[in-house]
Amino acid sequence: MKIAVVAANGLAGQSIVAEAVARGHQVTAVVRSENKSQAQDVLQKDLFDLTKEDLAGFDVVVTAFGAFAPEVLPQHTTSLEHLAGLLENTATRLLVVGGAGSLYLDDSLTSQLSDAADFPAEFQPLAKAMANGLARLRQFDKVKWTYISPAADFVADGEKTGNYILAGEVFTVNEAGESAISYADYAIAMLDEIEKGKHLQERISVLGK
To answer: Greatest CA span in the chain, whole angstroms?
Structure first.
């Protein structure tokens, strides 16, 4: 498959590129600066400057975009608006590296993980910004999107086990009562979803076994 990974220089982006290349896919890194990933091709361009022509011909576009400073948190919404707008009414799928804070606490799908009393206050603004982005993405009914939330503990240098648990919109823990996943195992889950394409216009979640 032809896969574009936006923000491929980030740790999550690099992990996804590495897994995709290892599986034999043709990967283009979309980066603002010199490419640091294993991608075979490079498109050096800011996400917000991308055009329909730039993304034409790809089977899948993955966005691993992240914004963390308070003044840029709204870009979690505007970046998805821009990419979804470019991919409307096309066959190209959009897969999003999401956040865990917007996962729901139970099947009523009312309260989110970020609403819990023990959710770290320092992560509240980021969680809310990412939740807003997901809410906006849900409004694009002519885009083949999939939003993949990682576990609560998203471990950059964690072990690659090759195993994960696929869950849905509700916050889930493993048999040990833990919610954690390495970037490497998240990348495996991402590529499995890219190759199988079973969850169009859905948010799913993944965690380590």
So the answer is: 47
CATH of the domain at 49: 3.40.50.720
59-75 confidence digits (pLDDT tens) = 999 999 999 999 999 99
| pLDDT value at residue 114 | 96
**pTM value > 0.90:** yes
| Beta pairing class for 165-167 and 202-207 | antiparallel
Per the structure, the count of domains in the chain is: 1
| Ranges of residues in the chain whose predicted pLDDT is under 70 | none
Place of tokens 């603004």: 125
Whether the Cβ atoms of residue 51 and residue 33 lie closer than 8 Å to each other: no
In which domain, by residue range, is 198 found?
Answer: 2-208
CB 23 within 8 A of CB 191: yes
